């Protein structure tokens, strides 16, 4: 158990809908990262927050947004969903944000857009 | 732009033999490298890491080698065990704007046969 909690584990929805994925980092970790793993793809970095502030952004679509709350949990919001958004979404956390950080991953949310 | 590449999608090894997983990178700013292991329906778990100031790091049955001039790293597992069967991801971080985020390879499926 990594200590990172993601909910829900599975989500099935329709095109055009909006969903929210939730992540609770390990106790004491201030950084939260979101990654997307599509079929046959590696993990693609989406966005990172540190202590409530956005730190780094990857190839995140404009239809996607995220935030980190004062209690350090994070939410990833996906809107106007398309079939291609079906993927496994991972949240990870780490104590800080510098180099030499080990990221600890949750077990992921499997999103299916029908 | 695939900055971290694992060119072998899969590897099959007999129990007790050595498993060698390879990874190449293109970004010379990377200064920290990690290997993660992933079982089905679980998030990636940290296995071993190496800083760019070293060329080898060992932890039990796992050894990571880094060849900076070739921009190549490898993970050796000796002896391999059936429980090592999983997807192995190589990851890298570094550079002024990395903020700790990791860039992942596509993964290599390792199968260890009894």
Task: Walk me through this protein's architecture.
The complex is a heterodimer of chains A (114) and B (114). Chain A contains no helices and eleven strands. Helix content of chain A is 0%, strand content 51%. Chain A is globular. Chain A has 114 residues and is mainly β. In chain A, the strands form two sheets. In chain A, strands 2, 4, 5, 6, 9, 10 and 11 form a seven-stranded mixed β-sheet that branches. The relative contact order of chain A is 0.34. The model of chain B has no long low-confidence stretch (mean pLDDT 93). Chain B has strands at 4-5, 10-14, 19-25, 32-38, 45-51, 56-59, 62-67, 72-77, 86-93, 103-104, 108-113. With 114 residues, chain B is an all-beta fold. In chain B, strands 2, 4, 5, 9, 10 and 11 form a six-stranded mixed β-sheet that branches. A five-stranded antiparallel β-sheet of chain B has the order 1-3-8-7-6, with no helix packed on it. The chains are: A mainly beta (114), B mainly beta (114). At the A-B interface, β4, β5, β9 and β10 of A face β4, β5 and β10 of B.
**Percent helix range of chain A:** under 10%
Give a quick account of the main beta sheet of chain B: strands, pairing sense, barrel closure: 6 strands, mixed
Task: Note the beta-strand portion of chain A.
Answer: over 45%
Q: Give the low-pLDDT segments of chain B.
A: none
Distance between the termini of chain A: 31 Å
Brief synopsis:
Chain A is mainly β and 114 residues long.
Describe the structure using short key phrases:
heterodimer; A: 114 residues; mainly beta; four-stranded antiparallel beta sheet; 11 strands; globular; B: 114 residues; five-stranded antiparallel beta sheet; 0% helix
């Amino acid at each position: 158990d990594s200590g990172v909690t993601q909910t829900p584990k599975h989500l099935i929805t329709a095109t055009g809908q909006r969903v929210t994925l939730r992540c609770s980092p390990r106790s004491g970790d201030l950084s939260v990262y979101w990654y997307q793993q599509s079929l046959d793809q590696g993990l693609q970095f989406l966005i990172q927050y540190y202590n409530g502030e956005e730190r780094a952004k990857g190839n995140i679509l404009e239809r996607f947004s995220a935030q980190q709350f004062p209690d350090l949990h994070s939410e990833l919001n996906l809107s106007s969903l398309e079939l291609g958004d079906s993927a496994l979404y991972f949240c990870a956390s780490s104590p800080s944000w510098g180099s030499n950080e080990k990221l600890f991953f949750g077990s992921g949310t499997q999103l299916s857009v029908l | 732009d695939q900055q971290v590449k694992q060119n072998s999608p899969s590897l099959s090894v007999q129990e007790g033999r050595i498993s060698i997983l390879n990874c190449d990178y293109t970004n010379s700013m990377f200064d920290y490298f990690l290997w993660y292991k992933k079982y089905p329906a679980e998030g990636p778990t940290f296995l071993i890491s190496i800083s760019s100031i070293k060329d080898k790091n060992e932890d039990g049955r796992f050894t990571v080698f880094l060849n900076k001039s070739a921009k190549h790293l490898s993970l050796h597992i000796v002896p391999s065990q059936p429980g090592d069967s999983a997807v192995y991801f190589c990851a890298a971080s570094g550079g002024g704007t990395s903020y700790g985020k990791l860039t992942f390879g596509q993964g290599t499926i390792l199968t260890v046969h009894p």
